[in-house]
UniProtKB/TrEMBL annotation:
Organism field: Clostridium cadaveris
Top-level taxon of the source organism: Bacteria
Identification of the protein by name: Uncharacterized protein
Length: 53
């Protein structure tokens, strides 16, 4: 479909289809980012261990 000749309804449908296909991926990456922020990385773990000793 040529975007220049597409009408508003076609563009809206295309947008919704794209959004639907992207949602699982976005959710997947957000989960990974959230998990990484919550669990300390190796350096943080090492620093925590040093403080406890």
């Amino acid at each position: 479909m040529d975007i220049r000749t597409a009408n508003e309804r076609e563009l809206l449908n295309l947008w919704e289809e794209t959004e639907k296909s992207m949602k699982p991926t976005t959710r997947f990456f957000m989960t990974i980012l959230k998990d990484e922020k919550q669990t300390p990385n190796t350096c943080e773990k090492f620093c925590l261990l040093q403080k406890q000793l």
